[in-house]
Specification:
The structure is a homodimer. The first copy, chain A, is α+β, with helices and mostly antiparallel strands. In chain A, 17% of the residues lie in helices and 27% in strands. The first copy, chain A, has 11 helices and 24 strands. Chain A has a 5-stranded mixed β-sheet with strand order 5-4-13-8-9. In chain A, strands 6, 7, 10, 11 and 12 form a 5-stranded antiparallel β-sheet that branches. The first copy, chain A, has a 5-stranded mixed β-sheet with strand order 15-22-21-17-18, with no helix packed on it. In chain A, strand 4 and strand 5 form a beta hairpin. The interface between A and B is large, with 119 and 117 residues.
Amino acid sequence: MPGSKAEGAFILHNDLPWALETRRNHFGFGPITSASHLFVRNNLPAPAASLTDQGDGWSFDVVGCAREGSLTLADLKRMKNRTVATVLQCSGNGRDFFPHDPSGSQWGVGAAGCVLWTGVSVADIFEQFGGVQSGLAYLTATGGEELPEGVDKDAVVVERSVPIEKGLRDCLLVWEMNGAPLPVIHGGPVRLVVPGYFGVNNVKWVRQLAATARESGAKIQQSGYRMRPEGLAGGPEQPSMWRMPVKSWLNGPGADGAAVLAGTNTLYGVAFSGERGVDAVEVSADDGATWQQAEWVGPDLGPDAWRTFQFAIRIPVGEHRFVTRATDTQGDQQPRVAVHNHRGYGHNGWRDHGLSVRAVAELPKTEIKGSLQASESTADTVSASMAMLALSDKALEGKQLFLQQAQPGCGVCHSLADANARGVVGPNLNQLRPNLAQVESAIAQGVGAMPAYGAQLSQSELEALAAYVVEATR
Amino acid sequence: MPGSKAEGAFILHNDLPWALETRRNHFGFGPITSASHLFVRNNLPAPAASLTDQGDGWSFDVVGCAREGSLTLADLKRMKNRTVATVLQCSGNGRDFFPHDPSGSQWGVGAAGCVLWTGVSVADIFEQFGGVQSGLAYLTATGGEELPEGVDKDAVVVERSVPIEKGLRDCLLVWEMNGAPLPVIHGGPVRLVVPGYFGVNNVKWVRQLAATARESGAKIQQSGYRMRPEGLAGGPEQPSMWRMPVKSWLNGPGADGAAVLAGTNTLYGVAFSGERGVDAVEVSADDGATWQQAEWVGPDLGPDAWRTFQFAIRIPVGEHRFVTRATDTQGDQQPRVAVHNHRGYGHNGWRDHGLSVRAVAELPKTEIKGSLQASESTADTVSASMAMLALSDKALEGKQLFLQQAQPGCGVCHSLADANARGVVGPNLNQLRPNLAQVESAIAQGVGAMPAYGAQLSQSELEALAAYVVEATR
């Protein structure tokens, strides 16, 4: 499991390249999916670390404009930037629900997330090179994955095309995800974001951004990622996996087999429709015979994001199944059953996305884990320098005060190696290394949670204590 | 450094308890601060792991309502939830800019972040217990930190009060931050969020939520966190660090000494005002003699969040200083100089928050790091079972095809321990463990990036290959 990913939050479908599905009960209630919980689906392994480690030096070519050239990430960061929230969803999300067992990772609901991206618009980039040449109909992005020798490039290269109007309207090259640098596993240093389109179009590790006359000749574009009848081979005449249709599902409570306490509960989930946003989402407890409208929760992050919703409901003891149905701003409503297709793409049927919930009268008692104390491990981080310190007479007087005379003793709250003090309430003085004035002020007047001791100490004692703390932490 | 925090992104002010400041050049361009980049300021060390590990079993008392009682996190999750974005900012953020050297961590701009919280409203919680008793004027929350023996509780306990009207209007108990479970270091399992108020009010590890007649008697409330003239002791008659005033600053480019390339650049930063939101932010390149309005970027997450802004500007070679001044929705404008106060709290003066930028004609060449190949380390994860496999005759025939006859060889793309194949383009077959039908379908028709080989192989060869892959991965 990649180090940045939360333990226990994923179903591992594959490791080279990564295919990690967010477990349904590990989605949050809020509208953003944290990097630690976001699914991963890479078509090929990431470029070598020696390439992705270049950060701002990462470069890519720009093709199909009045002038050709290249840019680095540093160049992008000097340009006008944009931040948008989009749903990132694998074309095969929901494949596991198709009855004909299409090959590929058996994703349930968790090959999707909603992310805040920051980057530069493709239109601004093309503008820098004099604008798109006339007659070019597609935006084509090429990933930076290294291709093995002996393999036909078009068979494996990750290169995707979308209509040029789409590219110029709202596509971005991004370097930031949820406020942090875009992780390599998600396409960093630089990735294409195609708001509202399926994941495969959001090419990672972009090495070329082109305006082209035709769709890419790569297999992943020509015959891959096409909606095609079962048994038929893929081809360019079939619909490409571009815009994501309206969809919703519940993430809890009670997903992945966890029992819920019978009584009033709050169902929660997500709803979206590529480029459009959603108008409403309804919940049914009787397999769609009757529906009731759910309530939106949290901020609306825009038409390409998902919205989170909730629905308060009394759940009696027993097994239940709840389904949801979203309607987008153009009136499209989630169908009961998905469009059957060979590869198991684009599943948005409400029936199969239902949440099965087992409600019980009493939950099993929470097991209290072993009594490992956090302080046990952290106490050892006190750097106990055992070398004898040469203290001045004043400081030696202060040491006595520190150890014995202060009530309560200074070491109750502070760590100080020379005094063998390991308190963890106040600052570690070896780390803080305060100066005389700071110690005197803290003791005399208090600071933060520390009370004032000014009334209990003479000026001479105050100075002695300060001298000790300063000398003992040099 | 806590494990979940991004390497290099912080200034360490203290470790027991943690005081970590986000470096100015590690803030993102977007409106949300990732958990990996969010500052940490804890008054006391976190409760023992044995307590915080309880997750949904975490419980807290509810006091001051018609009925008293307690709730667990599991109870909260059954209630109606809310998601809000708020700026979390330490009262001492900007302390380093005060000329009188107030004691405490010398925060610059980085003791702040903007976060999406999910939880339950305090009003709903109190409602569950029959509502607040009449005459109680404060919401008082108590943290779950363990207090050392021998120390006066009121001197160290983290217990804060805010007006009850504020508590009932928009305060939350939260368990989720940016879509992931609230980390312990940030107050998980359960924390109070007081939108628009300084950090100290957002009590962590909440063990008691009370409506009270008076403000808490704790030192942190009575005399701590008060705006007071230099030299004066703290007391309850002074203003408490509650609502955050209007503020803005630039985060880049060129923060923390990084040179920028002269020419057109985009300045970017954040602006906010507690409970109000911001109307405008202006930029000045001449220390406030003239101002120009900046442009908002990204979604507006609400009146308690910050907004990100940008300003395109040509920067000539040389040293420059840019300042910004925000105006909130009630007309309050950031002052030039902060209100001088003993503890160095609440700094929002625009002059000191300026960004110094050094622009150069040419940037130093990016150093290409050593040629460590990602594939070197990942290749070792192939589980190379060296035990002899008992293969059927059919599978042995398939092994020859796998190793020699296929063009290109299967191992160019796939890992398969029995064949000593270590390709990383396609799935690792030992991990995938496909069944006969899946292998046959993939070879005959292709799948994902894999081309179809159906035309090159006889049915018997296809079956042999499939038999080999299945038997070799059992």
